[in-house]
Design brief:
Order of helices and strands: HHHEEEHHEHEEHEHHEHEEHHHHEEHEEH
Bound molecules: pyridoxal-5'-phosphate
Strand content: 5-15%
Strand order of the largest sheet: 4-10-9-8-7-5-6
Distance between the termini: 32 Å
Length: about 500
């Protein structure tokens, strides 16, 4: 692990400075593994829970009813559910409103796609026109498929062709299938802790590095038999990436390495700056493909994605979220022409085809939304504007943490911000307390998320905060006052 490489911060990207990954990783490790837990004081938590009882009766009624018809009462893993989910009825710019009329600052951003702010009117109007004209789907070709593909090819440095699908999970499945078809090899290496969607082969090494198939319930072992994980940032170690490549050579070789270019879980365990470059070199040396999962980072980190920021070209890139501008059916894969042609090969030639499909993949609505949203991001400089909001938010959180003498860690890569307080996902697999503590730490994070909601802030799982172009200085400063109130209640 080394973060001593010469760091280049290109113009036009959301990341305005490179945070020192090594020191962040050390502090995160310490918080998750060496320190006690720091929950919100009981009496303060009781007060916060009263908010839900007194102000959120409509959400409670709806989500109680939902438990009778929807398993667990809620469909989204990201909707924070403690003490019960909020039912949202309105979204605009930086704000969400629940069914009881309460307003929240939205740092969840639907899990990442609404970089322009929620329900961005200029895109919404184009979509209304489209729906009036063709409806959302016909099953036949629409010009917006071409327009979106052309735009992505123009903006993303490594993408020569693009295939639209319906989700990031599907994009990952397609990329891996193409990599195996193209190389004729089967092993795929991922970085432990990363989330690449919920396909059978990728529910492996999720959240906590080294966890392997522990969450792969209902998935036959054969499905992930060729999925391997390495620890984040570990290239040279005895079980690091280089050694795994070497071992795989004796077993048919490595088809691809797939990674999130900022580090697992959108940089929750941040990469050291030159990690991606070194993985690129190893892939070239072993004749394997490099797949960047840019489901979160494409367009959010900059119009050229994380690959443009790092100046590293993957062979394939997976898209999701922003690629459909916050509208449904967001997913796709793009990359080198020769590899991408695997998706068409069976029709025209004798080559083997990597099968992909989907009734609603590449429908006019998703393609038009992606096209107009990405154009709007380009016209308004949205990635940079949102990135500056992320910088302001993070600086403010760091100031609060320091002033209050808390051991918490706040850092950001542009508009992707992290506030680690209980750090459940940062526990070490070798920590003997992991199985007893992880649930408790998760509950502390849930309480933190609930306290934030009672203060009018929606986060992703109480620890990740996405900023958008709608987050003006005023919005961020207001949010910081709210965070300060939450953190004033932490027991230390
Ligand atoms: C990095 C990454 N890859 C893949 C996915 C899966 O995308 P989807 O939820 O669209 O299937 C996600 C979703 O959060 C993600 O964050």
């Amino acid at each position: 692990m080394a973060d001593k490489a010469k760091i280049i911060i290109p113009e036009g990207y959301a990341i305005s400075y490179w945070p020192d990954s090594e020191s962040i990783l050390e502090r995160l490790h310490d918080l998750a593994n060496n320190r006690p837990m720091y929950p919100i004081r009981r009496e303060s938590m009781e007060e916060y829970l009263k908010y839900f009882e007194t102000k959120c009766a409509g959400s409670k009624k709806l989500t109680d009813d939902a438990k009778r018809f929807i398993p667990g009462g809620v469909q989204h893993n990201l909707a924070f559910n403690y003490p019960f989910p909020l039912a949202i009825t309105r979204a605009e710019g930086a704000y969400l409103w629940d069914v009881d009329g309460n307003r929240y600052i939205d740092f969840l951003q639907a899990g990442g796609p609404t970089l322009l702010g929620s329900n961005y009117k200029p895109v919404q109007e184009k979509i209304m026109d489209l729906i009036r004209e063709s409806g959302p789907v016909t099953g036949l070709f629409h010009e917006y498929e071409l327009k979106l593909a052309e735009l992505i090819v123009r903006l993303m440095p490594s993408v020569e062709m693009f295939r639209m699908l319906a989700s990031g999970s599907e994009g990952v499945m397609a990329a891996i299938r193409a990599a195996r078809t193209f190389t004729g090899k089967s092993k795929v290496i991922k970085v432990g802790g990363a989330y690449h969607g919920w396909s059978d082969q990728m529910v492996f090494g999720m959240r906590i590095p080294g966890i392997g198939p522990l969450e792969a319930h209902g998935i036959p072992a054969g499905c992930y038999a060729d999925t391997q994980e390495v620890f984040p940032n570990d290239i040279e170690g005895p079980n690091g990436l280089a050694a795994m490549f070497e071992r795989n050579e004796k077993e048919g070789g490595t088809a691809a390495v797939i990674l999130e270019p900022l580090g697992p879980e959108s940089g929750t365990r941040p990469v050291v700056y030159d990690y991606n470059k070194r993985v690129r070199e190893l892939c070239d040396g072993f004749g394997s493909l490099l797949i960047f999962d840019e489901v979160v980072t494409a367009f959010r980190v900059g119009l050229g994605g994380a690959q443009g920021f790092f100046g590293v070209k993957p062979d394939l890139t997976v898209f999701g979220k922003c690629v459909a501008g916050g509208y449904p059916a967001a997913g796709g894969v793009g990359g080198r022409r020769d590899v991408m042609e695997c998706f068409a090969a069976g029709i025209q030639g004798m080559k083997k085809r990597a099968m992909v499909g989907g009734t609603l993949s590449a429908n006019p609505l998703s393609c038009a939304a992606g096209y107009y949203a990405i154009k709007a991001m380009e016209d308004t400089n949205a990635p940079v504007v949102a990135g500056r909001a992320g910088d302001r938010l993070t600086r403010g959180l760091q100031e609060i943490i320091e002033r209050r003498g808390l051991p918490f860690v706040a850092f950001n890569h542009g508009s992707i911000c992290h506030l680690e307080t209980a750090a459940a996902m940062l526990m070490d697999i070798n920590n003997p307390k992991i199985f007893t503590e992880v649930t408790e730490r998760k509950h502390i994070m849930e309480e933190m998320g609930a306290a934030m909601m009672a203060e009018g802030i929606i986060s992703l799982a109480g620890s990740r905060l996405y900023t958008s172009m709608a987050d003006t200085d005023e919005v961020i400063d207001d949010a910081l006052e709210r965070f300060d109130r939450v953190l004033s209640c932490v027991e230390i």
